Amino acid sequence: MSVLSPAPLLSPDSLEEALRSIGAERYHHLHPFHRALHDGRLSRGQVQAWALNRYYYQSRIPAKDASLLARLPTAELRREWRSRLVDHDGDAPGTGGVARWLVLTDGLGLDRDYVTSLEGLLPATRFSVDAYVTFVRERTVLEAVASSLTELFSPLIIGERVSGMLRHYDFVTQETLAYFTPRLTQAPKDSDFALAYVREHARTPEQQQGALDALRFKCSLLWTMLDALDYSYVSPGRIPPGAFRPS
Fold first, then answer.
1. What pLDDT, on a 0 to 100 scale, did the predictor assign at position 5?
2. Which of 13, 22, 32, 196 is the most buried (most CB within 10 A)?
């Protein structure tokens, strides 16, 4: 019987390279649904379904971050992570990323009360997002921080998304897509901090493997959400009972 060799301890640079290779292979900018979204091959109703389901992800990010904030051991770390709550929840009503996402759903013609009620969510969206919040709450701080490293790759997808949607959809405007402009600076700041934390604190092969697996988990979660959208609204177009149906 063969015995697997233990994983080697990677240098911080090699660990970062391995993390970045996960994004290159698994980040959801490669998903066919996103390719269709950015290339103008979706109907208005399909874009609405994407925005409505993504709202649940956006709205639960502050809960995810708050659960991690409560477990961070130093004031320095808590101050750094706290900025994420302000970025998403804002510091006053109508500010922050969640509020800007509702501007997007408004601009696409979705009723705001319907969006925030979550009545039209795909089951897979709810299960996937809830699984992410649970992961961050229950796994180690290192794994929770590492799972956020999809932000390393988000500027790429944001650039493609904004330019592609403005070019291809006459029902989309710069104002509709205002959510994405601050993320071009927020995401790199957040990912720089998270990457430095993982490089410093993943000190054993087991910790490094945990960080790599956490990023794989997050990539798989985002991919699963798009799988559900593609199956329900594109091909074969089997919308589950109770989920949003484009008019």
1. 66
2. 22
